[in-house]
Every structure is written in C-alpha cells, then in structure tokens.
Design brief:
mainly alpha
Length: 83
C-alpha cells in the first residue's frame, strides 16, 4: 500500500515532510504521556504505528542530522527499538 501511494503522490517531498512532522508530534505526545504517567494510553498507538514511526525517523535523521541515539520524543524511543 505504501509503495502504491508513493507512486501516485504528486509531491512526495511534501508528503515526507508532513509524515515526519506527524512523527515528531506523536513523539511529543508520547513524552508528555510518559511524564504524566499515562504511557499506557498512548503505547497502543505507538506500537501500532512502528513502521510509520521508523520511516519518519529515517527521514528526520537524513534531513535534519539527528544522530541515531539522540533526539526528542520518539526519536530516542525509536532508536532504542532497533537495539
């Protein structure tokens, strides 16, 4: 499905930027939930979206020079998942 959508996307660069923004926003919500001890409320969404999160993190790392072991929110969480 992802490959098909990418093949018909009229502006893939904008789609990748928006996707990366969604990942960063989700990361921000995840950090807030963890700090408020409500991680259980957001973890199902994070778990369900792992392939999308990883794709967004890859884009962020490539275009924003975020090291694999640094970053905020899900950037740090995502790098831990691959170890």
């Amino acid at each position: 499905m992802r490959a098909y959508c990418q093949s018909i996307d009229p502006d893939p660069a904008v789609a990748q930027q928006e996707h990366a923004r969604w990942v960063r926003d989700l990361g921000g919500r995840w950090v807030i939930a963890v700090r408020a001890r409500r991680a259980g409320q957001i973890m199902p969404a994070v778990s369900r979206e792992l392939p999308n999160i990883r794709a967004g993190l890859a884009y962020l790392r490539e275009h924003l020079s975020i090291p694999s072991d640094r970053g905020d929110g899900l950037c740090h969480f995502g790098s831990d998942l691959r170890r």
